[in-house]
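SUBJECT: A protein chain and its fold
Encoding: whole-number codes for local backbone shapes
Chain under study, with its fold:
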Amino acid sequence: MFSHFKLPLHALFVLPLWFACALPANAQTAAPTMAQALDAAWALSPAARAQTNRQAELDARQRAADSFLAAPPALTLRQRSDRANANQGFSETEAELSLPLRTPSIRSASVRQIAAERSDYASQQSSVKLKLAGELRELAASAALATLERDLAARQLTDAQTLLRDVQRRVQAGDSPRIDSLQASAAEKQAAQQLSQAQAALAAVQTQWHALTGLMTLAAPENLVSENTPGSLGTALPEHPAARAAQTRVNASRAQLAFAEADRSDPPELGLGITRERDRRGDAAQNTLQLALRIPFGGDNRNAPRLAAARAEIDTAQAELDAVLRQVQADTTVAQAALLSARRTQLLATERAALSREAQALVAKSYRLGESDLPTRLRLERESFEAELALARAQGETQRAIARLNQSYGILP
């Protein structure tokens, strides 16, 4: 025979969320590091997926820039005869191969432009990867806070259940009124509700983490890389990926201008042709070889708009570089101040939690001795939980401040 048992009402809500939070944690044997999580998220990102074809495009353009031909060769065929009038057998066939040539100055400017674009693309990829690392850091900090709140809520529920059993024994023994049992039961239901909410919040963060990284296990937040600013404005800050990306964009714009200045006209064309001609029917055909050189001339109608557009690109890129340097410096200053504030808040929260725990322990002892009533103990239990919750949140905000400071330094996990 099977024994029958009844689950409390709150378990119907708590257990599904508990399984939602517990199963992903068991899916992997060890939690990944932030660096491993970043690699996993990068592999799923659009920028990484397009990287192979983008590199193939740059390689193809590099091969084209190294070629002596500015465009593919063209073949021209012509045929003339007198069949429409005299019809005496006159025939002329001409074949000409046109070769657009790339001048040495154009070849050199093209090679420099491709090299600048290749460097710009690598820097842009690093900048995109840093932004992805920022998303991971925010999620890891949120997960750490949600885990602390979940653990705290679970501990509160355990304490509330222990207190409820103690109060129910007292009520059954006639040592406490029935209202104490009702108050203890209400406190237990409130603790179960808070645990359910904490588990739901943690499950939501885990879902976002899995969507971003494809991993089932959350990574632990990283430690602070350095307490010092990596550099001052205009000196070491260009090593920041965002600043380096802005600088390479300036370099690419300058290379584009240099190419526009070198490419003043359409490429010259070398023509190689052969003509086969016969004057009358029965005469022997004669072959002649032709050599032609076509040199186009440039002009303002062609070059002025391209040069102006290239100069405008340089001005825009330089302005973006200046703005990025200022923003990086401001982000670092703000992140340092936020970390200092978060640490002060955590210190105060730690002291408050210690005092609340001490007061709660004294009231719990006096309640067991019959020297205080249940409402007083429940009030102290609630105040102690609020103090512990404030401490957990202060610890989570400290982790978030550390993550944001590392992000402002431009350092990848």
About this structure: Confidence is low (pLDDT under 50) at residues 1-28, 231-236. Residues 138 and 400 are 7 Å apart (CA to CA). The longest helix spans residues 104-173. The beta strands are 74-81, 91-100, 269-278, 286-294.
